[in-house]
Amino acid sequence: MKKEAIMGIDVGSVSVKAALLDAKGKILRTFYERNRGMLLEKLMEIFQKIPKTFEIKGVGITGSARNFVGKVIGADLIKNEITAHASALMKFYPSAKTIIEIGGQDSKIIIFRKGVPVDFAMNTVCAAGTGSFLDQQASRLCIPIEDFGKIALKSKKNLSVGGRCTVFAESDMIQKQQAGHEIKDVIRGLCNNLVKNYLNNVAKGKDLEKPFVLLGGVAANKGIVSAFERQLNAKMIIPKNYNVMGAIGMAILVLKEKIKKTKFRGLNFSSYQMKRQNFQCKSCNNECEIIRITVGNEVSHLGSKCGKWE
After folding, report:
1. CATH superfamily assigned to domain 3-84+247-272
2. What pairs with residue 175 in β-bridges?
3. Prediction pTM value
4. 215 CB-near residues (< 8 Å, 6+ apart)
């Protein structure tokens, strides 16, 4: 007999996450894959890892590619990342007051009061306060990103690495290295700079109160965690499932919808018979690049600024 499960998916710019919950909201399985620009391929790998003993009764999706991937797989519910993360935090950390989430190419803040989200902000403009910039610098220094935070903790210096954008921050790092500063001090300075940029931009004007919860892949970086704790003068809570909370939140939202019959096309991608075409809309001066997705007999469109093709 198959075990019924609800699936939440988070398709971001850097990674693909999924979570399976039972009817009571208990987490059954979680999955995390770096996508390296291959969203559907990595999602397919996750689907292949899901035991055939599970029967998927509903699917929700969030993340930067939620609309495209949601159309392809037949998601029952599509929501933004703020809503997804808020849903997970209300269930697992109802006492939290400030949620900090740093993803691959964006960062967010959600302010909770009495278990209810009352304010939020999201930054998608500058990469200097995101995980992708840390990945880039770790690669440039030939240091595994998993060791980046550990090295930062070895430093006791407050070396200033200036710059509010990736270009100036990287340039200043290189200058500090050329001036003879130790790598551990430069990395600690970079972590301090990323946190400072976050607090001065995403969190600017927000009423920050503890308890603080840190989400996103960057939460695994001990150097960033330490920098937040120094600058906020407070302990950061790192959830067990810090990197898949968006997916968990989407599964919770689907559970609340009480879907009777799912639109999900199934775990077997090879049966989708998907076709993708691009064309330019000439209806106005925007000349949007439209993506036409055909899965079986169903046709969907993405990309129009005015919503004409949606």
Report:
1. ATPase, nucleotide binding domain (3.30.420.40)
2. none
3. 0.85
4. 85, 99, 100, 101, 102, 239, 242, 243, 245
Alpha carbon distance 268, 266 (integer Å): 6
**Angle between helical axes of 183-201 and 131-140 (0-180°, round to 10):** 160
Q: Do domains 3-84+247-272 and 94-238 have the same CATH topology?
A: yes
Residue type (1 letter), 83: T
Q: Give the span between the Cα atoms of 252 and 5, in whole angstroms.
A: 11
The reply to whether CATH 3.40.50.1970 applies to domain 94-238 is: no
Q: Please say whether the beta carbons of 34 and 42 come within 8 A.
A: yes
Contact 127/137 with Cβ under 8 angstroms? Answer: no
Per-residue pLDDT of the chain (310 residues; tens, 9 = 90+): 889 999 999 998 788 999 999 999 999 999 999 887 778 889 999 999 999 999 999 999 999 889 888 988 999 999 999 999 999 999 999 999 999 998 777 789 999 998 888 999 987 555 555 677 788 888 888 888 888 889 999 998 888 877 666 667 778 788 888 888 999 998 898 888 889 888 988 899 999 999 999 998 889 899 999 999 999 999 999 999 999 999 999 999 999 999 999 999 999 877 777 788 889 988 888 888 888 888 777 777 777 777 777 6
